[in-house]
């Protein structure tokens, strides 16, 4: 769309890492593509449009999605993902089931705390 065909795989890999380990904002995934558009291809307007779309989507969509989710620590989420990847045979299965098991443990703790108190 913006003439950035060489960074498709890099952007996909960075998006996956940013989703699993939320240490950096998701909009930073666009920085390599913006740099290529400005420095290599000489298209600053396309780079500005790409950056604006990423930042706009990041600010609007994250607020809409995270408003419904109670806060959780990124460390615990990453621990669930990597723990699941090491425990289960298939890493994809571990990525899905690791955080679910941690959420189940959290729900069990909350239920126990509410029943005892």
What is the CA-atom radius of gyration, in angstroms?
19 Å
Query: What structural category characterises the helix and strand content?
Result: mainly alpha
**Poorly predicted ranges (pLDDT <50, ≥5 residues)?**
none
N-to-C terminal Cα separation, in Å?
57 Å
What's the helix-strand series? HHHHH
Please report the total strand number as a whole number.
Answer: 0
Report the major sheet: none
Binned strand content? under 5%
Specify the overall morphology. Answer: elongated
GO cellular component, one term: membrane
Keywords: Membrane, Transmembrane, Transmembrane helix
Family: Belongs to the autoinducer-2 exporter (AI-2E) (TC 2.A.86) family.
Transmembrane segments: 94-111
Describe the structure.
The chain crosses the membrane at residues 94-111. Belongs to the autoinducer-2 exporter (AI-2E) (TC 2.A.86) family. The relative contact order is 0.09. This protein is mainly α and 117 residues long. The protein has 5 helices and no strands. Helix 2 (31-40) packs antiparallel against helix 3. It has 2 domains: 8-66, no CATH class; 74-116. It starts with 7 loop residues before the first helix and ends with a helix. The model has no long low-confidence stretch (mean pLDDT 80).
